[in-house]
């Protein structure tokens, strides 16, 4: 039987979104987790599948991590049933960083072209959001982070030139890196979402060292630019009870507020950090002395 075009469109729309919830875990639970359990609770794989929205909701600050890779045509952001919202950004804000080919995001009829490593903030209350790739042979990969929001702030694109850039570390300690603060309150107003990107220099492999925690916000790391055949070992857990998760290119990991979040790669790489909580002070960190880590 031939399907009517309207029915076909409705059917395809229902198949575009996958949604998974992850419960919050305490240090006591994590202490007893084996490798598979750690990966099931904290690792996020396969964020980019053609013409699908992929979402993982963490109950730490109700943080949403997602990805979308439009290939065939435009994809429209829709609210999964689990959000119980009339539309996705009814009570949320959204951060986007493009980690693929050039693309376009249309928010309430206004178009924003995003090249590789450019960012876009979309404020609470924006009802219509669409994602488009300019070239289906090199599709855009829109990495998405979303948090609950209590106020609407203007939608704004942040290019590499607009970022607040800080250089830290040294080659001698294998952590020479450039921090690009993209969607942070020193660049533009947000409710609680903050996002940025750290690029490691050739010969450096450690990010965020010395490691730290911050009780007033959780964090998600997304690793990319990992060369073929290389990996990143992500460290988590309380400073005196650390664990590790081996990660591959274009994978993300959830970091509770009580956990360190640091990694070492078998080569240099890039990672996107996203944060949420009651605190917008980027420098509010409780550093852990390297020799005190266990």
Automatic annotation (TrEMBL):
<dbReference type="GO" id="GO:0045490">
    <property type="term" value="P:pectin catabolic process"/>
</dbReference>
<dbReference type="InterPro" id="IPR007045">
    <property type="entry name" value="KduI"/>
</dbReference>
<protein>
    <recommendedName>
        <fullName>4-deoxy-L-threo-5-hexosulose-uronate ketol-isomerase</fullName>
        <ecNumber>5.3.1.17</ecNumber>
    </recommendedName>
</protein>
<dbReference type="GO" id="GO:0008270">
    <property type="term" value="F:zinc ion binding"/>
</dbReference>
<dbReference type="InterPro" id="IPR027449">
    <property type="entry name" value="KduI_N"/>
</dbReference>
<dbReference type="InterPro" id="IPR011051">
    <property type="entry name" value="RmlC_Cupin_sf"/>
</dbReference>
<keyword id="KW-0413">Isomerase</keyword>
<feature type="binding site">
    <location>
        <position position="214"/>
    </location>
    <ligand>
        <name>Zn(2+)</name>
    </ligand>
</feature>
<feature type="binding site">
    <location>
        <position position="219"/>
    </location>
    <ligand>
        <name>Zn(2+)</name>
    </ligand>
</feature>
<comment type="function">
    <text>Catalyzes the isomerization of 5-dehydro-4-deoxy-D-glucuronate to 3-deoxy-D-glycero-2,5-hexodiulosonate.</text>
</comment>
<dbReference type="GO" id="GO:0042840">
    <property type="term" value="P:D-glucuronate catabolic process"/>
</dbReference>
<dbReference type="Pfam" id="PF04962">
    <property type="entry name" value="KduI"/>
</dbReference>
<dbReference type="GO" id="GO:0008697">
    <property type="term" value="F:4-deoxy-L-threo-5-hexosulose-uronate ketol-isomerase activity"/>
</dbReference>
<dbReference type="InterPro" id="IPR021120">
    <property type="entry name" value="KduI/IolB_isomerase"/>
</dbReference>
<comment type="similarity">
    <text>Belongs to the KduI family.</text>
</comment>
<comment type="pathway">
    <text>Glycan metabolism; pectin degradation; 2-dehydro-3-deoxy-D-gluconate from pectin: step 4/5.</text>
</comment>
<dbReference type="GO" id="GO:0019698">
    <property type="term" value="P:D-galacturonate catabolic process"/>
</dbReference>
<keyword id="KW-0479">Metal-binding</keyword>
<feature type="binding site">
    <location>
        <position position="212"/>
    </location>
    <ligand>
        <name>Zn(2+)</name>
    </ligand>
</feature>
<dbReference type="InterPro" id="IPR014710">
    <property type="entry name" value="RmlC-like_jellyroll"/>
</dbReference>
<feature type="binding site">
    <location>
        <position position="261"/>
    </location>
    <ligand>
        <name>Zn(2+)</name>
    </ligand>
</feature>
<keyword id="KW-0862">Zinc</keyword>
């Amino acid at each position: 039987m031939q399907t009517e075009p309207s029915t076909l469109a409705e059917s395809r729309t229902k198949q575009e979104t996958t949604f998974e919830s992850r419960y919050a875990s305490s240090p006591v639970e994590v202490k007893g987790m084996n490798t598979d359990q750690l990966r099931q609770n904290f690792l996020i794989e396969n964020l980019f599948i053609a013409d699908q929205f992929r979402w993982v909701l963490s109950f730490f600050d109700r943080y949403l991590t997602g990805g979308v890779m439009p290939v065939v045509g435009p994809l429209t952001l829709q609210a999964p049933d689990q959000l119980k919202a009339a539309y996705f950004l009814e009570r949320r804000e959204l951060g986007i960083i493009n980690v693929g080919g050039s693309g376009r995001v249309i928010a309430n009829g206004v178009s924003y072209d995003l090249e590789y490593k450019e960012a876009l903030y979309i404020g609470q209350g924006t009802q219509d959001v669409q994602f488009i790739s300019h070239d289906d042979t090199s599709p855009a990969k829109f990495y998405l982070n979303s948090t609950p929001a209590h106020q609407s702030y203007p939608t704004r694109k942040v290019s590499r030139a607009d970022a607040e850039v800080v250089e830290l570390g040294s080659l001698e300690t294998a952590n020479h890196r450039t921090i690009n603060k993209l969607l942070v309150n020193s660049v533009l107003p947000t409710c609680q979402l903050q996002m940025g990107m750290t690029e490691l220099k050739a010969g450096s492999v450690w990010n965020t060292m010395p490691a730290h925690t911050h009780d007033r916000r959780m964090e998600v790391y997304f690793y990319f630019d990992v060369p073929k055949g290389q990996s990143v070992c992500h460290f988590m857990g309380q400073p005196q009870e650390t664990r590790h998760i081996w990660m591959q290119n274009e994978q993300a990991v959830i970091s509770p507020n009580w956990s360190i979040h640091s990694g070492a790669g078998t080569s240099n790489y890039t990672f996107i950090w996203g944060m949420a909580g009651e605190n917008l002070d980027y420098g509010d960190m409780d550093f852990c002395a390297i020799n005190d880590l266990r």
